[in-house]
Design a protein that fits this description.
Elements lengths: L1 E8 L5 E8 L11 H66 L7 H4 L5 H76 L19 H4 L12 E3 L6 E3 H18 L4 E4 L4 H10 L17 E5 L8 H9 L5 E2 L13 E4 L1 H6 L1
Antiparallel strand pairs: 1-2, 3-4, 5-6, 6-8, 7-8
């Protein structure tokens, strides 16, 4: 088991370490461990999605904070310029008096006279010097504030880079882990006789973490790229349903000494239409069948005989793999051969 420490930001903006635990991936998983492998692959995929989302949220939050700081710096620069502009006449006058003390209203005072005009001049000089000192003090305060904000912005940028680096490392680790789990799952399926690359499709068709892409297609119009082959030639289902069926098939084989007999699995829209018109009352309206979603099979070999030993076994054990005999199939229409995969039930296994 490995632990990765990922930096996150608290509400106050401080960086904090968040430990992420990663379970080791077995490269030689037993073929009968398909349910565990599927569950581990799904957990890896979910963790990867959450880490990616966290990175995107962190980037958005930091970008907003960075923008606010830049705005503040711009405001302070504008305020400094405005202050200088307003007080420039006073500063210029003080500078002029220092450069030409013999001229202007300050001449009596600067020449040593002590009459009323000299006292007035002294008062004016004191006022001007005070004004100049205020200008310098204000500018100094603004400069210090600018320096503080600039340092804060720099720290934020540094933290942003560090957080992004840590999150990218986590995402890369999770991506490799997810790929390793899916590879182990594919190898386990191949050992059990599933030709994951059958029909020129890639092994991704049996990747349970990509079932969301299958849900994007209309009923009966799923492409080969999202349909995983079964051990039974010519039969295929959506990845999660296929993996669960293969696991159930192995349990069935151990019990009865032979694999399950399958007469039908995924049905295209054209096949649904054909069956609907050939067997009225025994097929769903085209485009509404679970066969068209790659989530249903029709079984034979004894399972199709109500209350046979084989039927009872699948009924009693199917739920352990996410497979059920729907309520309607018990009576309306009566179809003991029809079984469906329940994704919600399967996700709990």
């Amino acid at each position: 088991m490995a632990v990765v420490s990922v930096l996150t930001l608290s509400s106050s903006g401080e960086a904090q370490a968040r430990p992420v635990t990663l379970e080791a991936v077995s490269q030689d998983s037993a073929p009968g461990n398909l349910t565990d492998l599927r569950r581990e692959a799904e957990r890896s995929s979910q963790a990867l999605a959450e880490a990616t989302k966290a990175l995107e949220q962190r980037q958005a939050t930091l970008a907003k904070a960075d923008s606010e700081l830049k705005k503040k710096l711009d405001q302070f620069r504008t305020a400094t310029a405005e202050l200088s502009k307003v007080r420039k006449p006073l500063a210029d006058l003080v500078q002029s008096l220092y450069q030409t003390p013999q001229g202007g209203d300050m001449a009596p005072f600067l020449s040593g006279a002590s009459d009323t005009s000299s006292l007035r001049a002294l008062s004016d000089m004191t006022y001007l010097v005070s004004g100049r000192d205020e200008i310098l003090a204000d500018v100094g305060r603004l400069y210090q504030e600018q320096q503080r904000l600039a340092a804060e912005a720099q720290d934020l940028r540094a933290t942003k880079l560090l957080v992004e680096a840590q999150l990218n490392l986590e995402i890369d680790t999770l991506r490799k882990r997810s790929a390793a789990v899916v590879k182990s799952l594919s190898q386990a399926l191949v050992k059990l006789g599933v030709r994951v690359n059958q029909g020129g499709r890639s092994g991704a068709a049996c990747d349970p973490t990509r079932v969301g892409s299958a849900a994007q297609y209309p009923n009966g119009l799923l492409p080969k790229s999202v349909l995983c082959p079964l051990q039974q030639p010519g039969r295929e289902l959506r990845a999660d349903a296929a993996i669960a069926f293969v696991a159930m098939n192995e349990a069935y084989r151990k019990r009865f000494g032979k694999p399950m007999c399958v007469t039908d699995s995924y049905r295209s829209l054209a096949q649904q239409q054909s069956i609907f018109y050939r067997r009225p009352g025994f097929a769903a309206v085209p485009g509404r069948s679970n066969h068209g979603l790659g989530l249903a099979v029709d079984l034979c070999g004894g399972v199709d005989v109500f209350r046979s030993l084989q039927f009872n076994w699948v009924e009693a054990n199917g739920k352990q793999f996410g497979w059920i005999h729907p309520d309607w199939a018990y009576h309306s229409p009566f179809e003991p051969w029809h079984w469906e995969y329940d994704p919600e039930l399967g996700s709990l296994l």
